[in-house]
Every structure is written in C-alpha cells, then in structure tokens.
Amino acid sequence: MDREALYRDPYPVYARARAAPGLTFVEELDAWLVARHADVREVLGRPDDFSSKGALRPDVIPGPRAFAELAGAPGGAPVVLSTDGEAHARYRRPLTRGLSPAKVAAVLPFVRATAGELVASFARAGHVEWMSAYARPLPAAVIGHLLGLDPADVPGAIRAGNRAEDLLFTPMSEDDQVAAAREVAALRHLLAAHAARSRTAGSLTGELSRGLAPGPGEPTPEQHDEIVANTQNVMLAGHLTTTALLGTVVHRLLRERDQWELLCERPELAGAAIEEAARYEAPVQGFRRTVTRPLELAGTALGEGETVFVSFGSAGRDEAVFERPDEFDIAREPVRHLSFGHGVHGCPGALLAREQLKVTLELLVRELPGLRLAGEDVVMAATLIHRAPEELHLCW
C-alpha cells in the first residue's frame, strides 16, 4: 500500500492492527500504530512518556527557495500542538480563555446569521457542492470573526493557511513551493500587524497577544514569533476540523438515508449525530508522539526517540468499546470517543466545533428536509489531518 491509498482509506490497516498482538509498525507512517481505544487513551494520558514534539511531522520538506521566502517573515516558533510541559500550558492558556463557553456563546448569533446566509445563497438552486459552498466558508468566517480579522482579509488568510499545510504535506514543484511560501509569508506579516493592533482587544488574537507577551511594553522578537505562529496555528486548526466534520456528518446522514429521516423526525438527536460523526470519521485521524524513555506499550518494547502514531480514527472503531463500530447510528448508546483528544492536549476548540455543527443540522432539517446525495461517488481527501469528502454534491 502506498501512502496516498492509506490516507484515503486507513480503516483496514487500523482493523488489522487492533487484531494483532502488541503494536504494529506501519511503513507508510514510519511509526508504530497505536490502534486500540485503551492504548490511545493511555498514550494521551502520559505526556511525560510520549512527547508531542513532532506531532505533525511533515510528509514533504520544502526546498531552500521556499525556506528563503519564509526567512524574513515573523512566526516559525513552536505552537501548542507540538510542545510539552510548561511551554504547552503557556500556549494553551490564552486559547482556553478565548474559546471558553462564554466566548463561544457570544459568537453564536454570528454563527447562526452566517449559516443562514450561506444556505439562503443556494437554497433556490436545488443543488450544491457542499464543501465549497458551506463546509469551508462557515468555519473560516467564524474563526476569522473570533480572531478579530477584517472580514475582507479572511478568505485570503484562510487560503494562505491552507497553503502552509500544502507546503508540508503535498508534493509540489519547486516553483509551486515558492509561490505557496510567498502566500504564507504574506499571511504571517498580516497576522503580525493584526496582533500589534489587538493587544487590548477582546478577540482571540488579543488573548494570544497578552497571554504570550504579558506586561507593558512591546513584545520581544521571540514573543512576537510565538504570537504569530500560534495565531496562524489556531486559525488553521479552528476551521479545518470543523470543515471536516461538516462534510462527514452530512455525508453519513444522507448515505444512510434512515439516519437522515430519523434526525428530521427527532431534531433533538442533532447532538448525538455530531458525536457519532466524530466517532465514525475522526476529523483528525491521529497525531504522532515521540517516546521519551525506554518503555513497554501493549506488550511492545519501545526505545527512546521512537515514534508512535496515536490513531483517534482507529480508537473510534474499536470493537472492544463500540458495538457495531463500522455502522453509523445516531441512536446508539453514547460512549465517550477520543476524536477530540484526551488529557492535556484535548482540543480547546471542541465546543466551538460542536456548536457550529448543531446550528448547521438544525438549519438543514428545518430548511432542506428533502436533502439527498446527488450521486454515490464520494472520494475522501488523501489526508489524515482533516478527513472529509473532497467534494459532496447534494440536491433537494
């Protein structure tokens, strides 16, 4: 199996790994696969033994010309996703404040208004490509709003953030790498200028600016880089995961038609549908962890410096925890999944994602109850970072 094939459908590999004794080394991941729910939970609960450094190791190393484009831009500092201990806690604190239940509640009117406008823009057409018309624009607008960005800057900022991902995970020609790096550098300059204006603002950018450079006076160059890097990281993470779930939940509800009809009959199941979608297709399939000392996991001896891939996606299909794990069933008895992480690295934006999904399902059930798939050919994107359909054509 090549890497692309694994990324498009990792579940057979997960199933074999869960059934095998110990851990399974997967060449395409260049890591030991942690596939069982109990083992995933254990690794996530032992951050001292399993470091987050290198959590998102690149598939591609950009060339020197691309690096040269980024050299003069701020950023490039560690971020919350790939740090441990006090550094991780320091990066996380402003995110916890900026994404608190009160902050999420305050943004809900904007979410509802934006969602309504998006659906109204295509409701009369009778058909839509869901990912481009709704699943990407809604979370992008919401995270831009929370960051306090000028709405006119949000589409370009999101595109540049996606180009940053492309640089590290998509094979490209040298010229394309350079073009992508230029967009990323421009984004970092934009975020730097925005952060400088946001020191006293109530936005998520303001929280990051004050939290990472406390006290009076201008941030140091190192603090400046941290603010830009972590703002860029939360912008990307703040929309990709929600976009993926917006694709997954609609796809699965409509593919299993009885599930959509059940939701229309019982709209109170929207929350259950969201959790089932997250379990069934974890939006982030997993992260890497680096072993910090010789130890044993699931009967497999691991040495210091070895890499494990902690699979949320596999944990959600574990037969030992979930009945009929390969069936999508919004009426199943709830069991806590790990798709938003666990422990100190649990997703700080999980509540925001859930609320956007809830608003969306309530809107669709009310406005487009006749929604259906406009074809069976749905191709999943070749990525483990935001698992979702590449395109999702719907009609009504």
UniProtKB/TrEMBL annotation:
GO molecular function, one term: steroid hydroxylase activity
Matching InterPro entries: Cyt_P450, Cyt_P450_CS, Cyt_P450_sf
Superkingdom of origin: Bacteria
PROSITE patterns per UniProt: CYTOCHROME_P450 (PS00086)
Coiled-coil blocks: none
Region described as Disordered: 202-221
GO biological process annotation, one example: cholesterol catabolic process
UniProt KW keywords: Heme, Iron, Metal-binding, Monooxygenase, Oxidoreductase
Gene3D superfamilies xref list: Cytochrome P450
Family, per entry: Belongs to the cytochrome P450 family.
Official protein name in the record: Cytochrome P450
